[in-house]
């Protein structure tokens, strides 16, 4: 009987201190930062938050964003915007890959149209060309290139190209 009482006490105490996670929204657009509020973490230096595509394993490299909690038991973390899709915000204790709690979020393109313009219409030979872009997907593999008018977008036809480095809007 005494063992049962102790076991119930331990179970009840563990339920009281379970980690929690919430976000300021359930659905984001591709240009909005993800604001995550967490509590009841262990407060260890290597507790961390990861954002993963829904259904992916916790393996390192599957996360699209992550950050340490900085030995805080509770706090707020802000992450850069994400490409359209469904994701899970996952909390992990002490540099582990065991999910303590998760919350699903959706990033919706929400009709946002990707645009690319230049800072002017005519450039002198050898003058740097500046491309201004908006509403890219935010993926680290996004890139932008300059092609001769009338050419196809086949690789090798580009005059120059640059990685977007996860930026959604900016200038290259």
From TrEMBL:
Quote the protein name from its UniProt record.
No hits
Q: What keywords were assigned to this record? A: Signal
UniProt signal peptide:
1-18
